[in-house]
Design goal:
This protein has 695 residues and is α/β, with parallel strands linked by helices. It contains 24 helices and 15 strands. Among the domains are: 380 residues, 3-Layer(aba) Sandwich (Kinesin), CATH 3.40.850; 106 residues, no CATH class. Bound molecules: adenosine-5'-triphosphate. InterPro entries: Kinesin-like_fam, Kinesin_motor_CS, Kinesin_motor_dom, Kinesin_motor_dom_sf, P-loop_NTPase.
Length: 695
């Protein structure tokens, strides 16, 4: 017997209780946490005085069957610890649960809609004029005031000088030590570092045709290279510390850690917001005392292309764009904080949600991007009752394990889709960094959910710090090289590296390279990971003396764009060896055509993935809507069955209403069922793997 039947049986003793139950049942049953997690929180009852179902004496002795399941959900729903209603309420209670979070009151939680409109950052001229020497108030760790270091804060400089002195993009590499497991397996450390030159070498063990071993060395140079003995404090000094003061000057900055799983991204990223907030509070209490600045924290995760609030029970968040093309993360909670301890607690809370929200903690965390944002705001015209306006923002991103982008062939569909999404977001991130460094009007933030949510960090005055985390062991060699190549490309996007914009340097690189057969400088684009290394030592840095075209991530554009530029000089250059140049030209043309074809096929695959994700989203929304409608129908049905016992009720009326209700239910189910079948078919047909593996 279903639960409605049981309810009819039990309720036959009292029509009054029965009716009360019909309403209260719905309200109390669904007034619980899973309504919220299913995105149906709007169905929660605002009437908290509704007595729980047990008060009616139903199901108390019920074991098994649907009735018992309902009973379980009721018990969960009545948890006094976790009310469902207003976000502020749920936050303050969850804070109470963790016990040691200070300095909060409900009013201090910002509205559910992340107020990106407030991004019309206010002019803070009065602050600027009082601000000279702000860095004196900062405890600088291990910083020497090297003027040539673009990240070195200068006490004497003006605000605008200080802002412009901080490089737009900084790329830092951090090597972690060998861990116990690697030591036990007697794995070798294959990374040697020259800290004074900010360079490192990867020693890749290779076999010759005669099976003798040789060491292929790959050299890289970055803004900073940190060895395994470097502390988190030093990492902070080099990466985020110089940026903190300029956050008060309407700058948005993003610091992200990139690397394979287990390479130390979380280990590196976790202390940074704490150190940064320490310095932010110092500035707020020192240089900016009485200026009304406020600090807010939000923490969310992007997993499988969906956004979840890590400080609000993994509530699913939606990204919306308003008429002014401002992106809003609808429902994201921002917590106003007054001390570092509180931030620490929030980070602990967010991280535990991140890892326990899904099964297999580390496995899952490495498949998601975690984003912690510190936003500095100020009340408009000093009016505390109005929502404060954003002044500047620091985003810390612990990216998904970079190797996950390659999870595209051997796994199940779900894993492949996630891998493709991760790959897409890592590529999109790089494109956005490129655009922001070029001061490009158009920032391709729509490329992925990750860049969409970071949109406001890519417009206006922005700074980006990338920390490439690498594992030192032999077994990680390939991933380490991939990480370093990605980092190298991010660095080469920087204005200081004009290789991409300077056709003459490309031409001279090509001329230098013609002494080798073309195949040694232009790899086969159809085999993206194949690297041609004619010499045993290869410098992987792109703007080096010879041309390197790595096709493993997205250097299709190197070929396409650069070919377009060099075509004319090459064909008119009479001094050079015409036959060689025309062969080279033909080969480049062919390469370009291949790349174009591959681009088109990648675009198709990308579109497939995009429409698949959209269809998935639509399906879940349709399901949610169907659940809502079902609940209305159940409510109506309950009223119907409750009323049929009333004297004077007509069976004809009952039957016609029942008929309508059942038809409505059937239509809803059929519609959803056909959507499910259609989606399953699309899922089967779409070659998700191609979208990523071909890159
Ligand atoms: N620089 C370091 N010094 C000492 N231990 C480190 C360092 N970097 C990482 N570790 C240790 O290595 C392990 C893996 O690090 P971590 O969890 O930060 O990796 P991750 O890149 O974030 O992995 P995932 O992508 O799977 O989340 C941890 O036990 C961490 O403590």
């Amino acid at each position: 017997m279903n639960f409605a039947g049981k309810q009819m049986q039990k309720s036959s003793s009292s029509g009054q209780i029965k009716r009360q139950y019909s309403d209260n049942f719905i309200e109390s049953t669904f007034n619980n946490k899973w309504l919220q997690s299913a995105g149906l929180h709007h169905l929660q009852s605002s009437n908290t005085s509704v007595p729980p179902l047990q008060d009616f004496g139903f199901y108390g002795d019920n074991v098994g069957g649907q009735g018992s399941r309902v009973g379980i959900s009721l018990q969960r729903g009545e948890s006094k610890e976790e009310p469902l209603t207003q976000p502020a309420c749920s936050r303050s209670l969850s804070m109470r649960k963790t016990g040691n979070v200070e300095g909060f009151s409900q009013s201090e939680l910002s509205p559910g809609l992340l107020d990106l409109h407030s991004f019309d950052t206010q002019l803070i001229s009065e602050v600027s004029s009082k601000r000279s020497g702000s860095s004196q108030n900062l405890v600088l760790h291990g910083m020497n005031s090297n003027d040539s270091d673009p990240f070195s804060p200068s006490n004497k400089s003006t605000d605008s000088e200080q802002t412009t002195n901080v490089a737009k993009i900084k790329v830092v590499v951090r090597k972690r030590p060998l861990n116990k497991k690697e030591l036990a397996k007697k794995e070798e450390d294959i990374i040697s570092i020259n800290p004074t030159m900010n360079s490192l070498t990867v020693h890749e063990a290779k076999l010759k045709v005669d099976l003798t071993e040789y060491d292929e060395r790959h050299g890289f140079t970055f803004d900073a290279v940190m060895a395994e003995n470097v502390s988190n404090d030093d990492i902070y000094s080099v990466t985020v510390e110089p940026i903190v003061p300029i956050i008060f000057q309407r700058t948005k900055a993003t610091c992200f850690a990139y690397g394979q799983t287990g390479s130390g991204k979380t280990y590196t990223m976790q202390p940074l917001p704490l150190r940064a907030s320490q310095d932010i509070f110092s500035l707020m209490q020192g240089t900016y005392r009485n200026q009304g600045f406020q600090l807010f924290v939000s923490f969310f995760e992007i997993y499988g292309g969906k956004v979840f609030d890590l400080l609000n029970e993994r509530k699913k968040l939606f990204i919306r764009e308003d008429g002014k093309q401002q992106v809003c993360i609808v429902g994201l909670q921002e917590h106003r904080v007054y001390n570092v301890e509180t931030i620490k607690d929030l980070i602990v809370k967010g991280n535990s949600t991140r890892s326990t929200g899904t099964t297999g903690a580390n496995e899952e965390s490495s498949r998601s991007h975690a984003i912690l944002q510190l936003a500095i705001k100020r009340p408009v015209d000093g009016n505390e009752s109005k929502p404060p306006r954003m002044v500047g923002k620091l985003s810390f991103i612990d990216l998904a394990g970079s190797e996950r982008g390659a999870d595209t062939t051997d796994n199940d569909k779900q894993t492949r889709m996630e891998g493709a999404e991760i790959n897409k977001s890592l590529l999109a991130l790089k494109e956005c960094i490129r655009a922001l460094d070029n001061d490009q009007g158009h920032i391709p933030f729509r490329g992925s959910k990750l860049t969409e949510v970071l949109r406001d960090s890519f417009v206006g005055d922005s700074r980006t710090v990338m920390i490439a985390c690498i594992s030192p062991n032999t077994g990680s060699c390939e991933h380490t090289l991939n990480t370093l190549r990605y980092a190298d490309r991010v660095k080469s996007l920087s204005k200081g590296n004009s290789f991409r914009r300077d056709p003459s340097s490309l031409i001279s690189n090509l001329r230098n390279s013609v002494v080798s057969p073309l195949s040694s400088v232009v790899p086969d684009v159809s085999r993206p990971n194949q690297r041609q290394t004619p010499a045993s030592f290869s410098n992987d840095r792109v703007p080096s003396g010879r041309m390197q075209i790595n096709m493993d991530i997205d250097d299709r554009d190197y070929v396409e764009e650069d070919y377009g530029r060099v075509n004319s000089p090459w064909t008119t250059d009479k001094r050079s060896d015409r036959s060689q140049t025309s062969t080279l030209g033909n080969n480049l043309r062919q390469t370009s055509r291949q790349a174009k074809r591959r681009d088109l096929s990648n675009m198709d695959a990308d579109n497939d993935l995009k429409s698949l994700l959209k269809e998935e989203e639509d399906l879940v929304n349709a399901h949610r809507k169907q659940v809502e409608e079902t609940m209305d129908i159940v409510k109506e049905e309950m009223n119907l069955v409750a009323n049929i016992d009333q004297p004077g009720n007509q069976i004809d009326d009952y039957l016609s209403k029942l008929h309508r209700i059942l038809s409505q239910k059937a239509a809803g189910i059929l519609d959803l069922q056909s959507r499910v079948t259609q989606f399953q078919e699309h899922l089967k047909d779409t070659k998700v793997s191609e979208s990523s593996s071909s890159r």
